[in-house]
Amino acid sequence: MTTDKYIRLCIAMATFLGANDLVTSGGRGALAAPPRRAMPVEDLILVAKLNHEAPEKILEVLDANGKSRGHLDLGKLLNVQRVRVSPDGKHLAFARFIPLSGNGPNARGQYAYPQDIYVADLPFTGPPKEPAIKGVIDPSIAWSGDGQSLYVSGCPKDANVNQNNMQNRMVLRKTIRYDLATKAEKPFNLPPFHAVQDVTPDGKTLLTQTKVWSSNQITFSTYLVPLDTLKPKLVGAAEDGFDQARFSPDGTKILGTRMKYTKSKDLGLF
Asked: Would you list the DSSP string of 95-116?
């Protein structure tokens, strides 16, 4: 695997795993795969890939050299994305497109791709049977600093998301906080239009994004939002076009993909 291919594969949808997480082999269920030596957390990478022909191979665990260490078997769950491992390494969260029929909202020209949010325990013993949160439109998810709750942002269910209505307007978002222990959803008063992308390692600051759709492009603005004030500070303007931004493990840098509105994407660090 070339360095370029490895970087593009990881940034497409990557998150770091602890060295003792369970992986599956050959679709036969969860098998312990301990390394021969202790490995730093950053040495294992979880990559999510669209794979309709082999759903058991959607989530692949790679080592730092890009070599496969196995898969987390999600059974029949397809179209998985936005995979996130909790900071304590004990839980896995991901979003999944819901299969739509010809009578679904997209068939009526709506900007509405509902997704279910799933949460599973680690070590991984099998696919979750039911979603934790159902039918979130255009979701983004991020774990709290202590790994005990999940921020989930999405379009309000009653929002007018007709494509004509969305043109050149900021996409309205609402955020909830899902408590892992009680499975309760509580509204979180993030400023309107902001969606949570990540949380600093100390749990004190959110990384958020606003998004504007137009006829031929999408523009993103990126912000830091301290939890004690909830006042956004712009760190990446719309012309920067950063998407899927994430904090570095030490919380001092932000990594994201820069949309060029062409067939290519560049990595950006700011």
From this structure: EEEPP--TTSGGGGTB---EEE
Which tokens sit at 226?
């301290």
**DSSP code per residue over 196-230:** EEEE-TTSSEEEEEEEEE-SS-EEEEEEEEETTT-
Mean pLDDT in each 10-residue stretch from start to end of the chain (270 residues)? Answer: 35 38 36 38 73 75 88 81 88 81 51 82 85 90 95 85 69 93 95 93 93 74 94 81 81 79 42
Q: d(Cα 225, Cα 116) in Å, to the nearest integer?
A: 26
Instruction: Name the CA dihedral angle for 242, 248, 252, 254, rounded to a multiple of 10 degrees.
Output: 0
Residue 189: the pLDDT is 92
Nearest to 33 by CA among 66, 11, 60, 1: 60
d(CA 18, CA 44): 7
Percent helix, strand and coil across the chain, each to the nearest 5: 10, 45, 45
Edge-to-edge strand ranges of the sheet holding 242-247: 242-247, 254-259, 265-269
d(CA 36, CA 205): 37
pTM check: above 0.70: yes
User: Which pLDDT score is estimated for 51?
Assistant: 63
Q: Which of 100, 116, 117 is closest to 108 using CA atoms? A: 100
- Judge whether 189 and 202 are in contact, CB under 8 Å: no
Contacts 24+ apart (CB under 8 A), 127-130: 127/73, 127/74, 127/75, 127/76, 127/77
The full DSSP string for 27-69 is: TS-EE----SS---GGGEEEEE---SS-GGGSEEEEETTS-EE
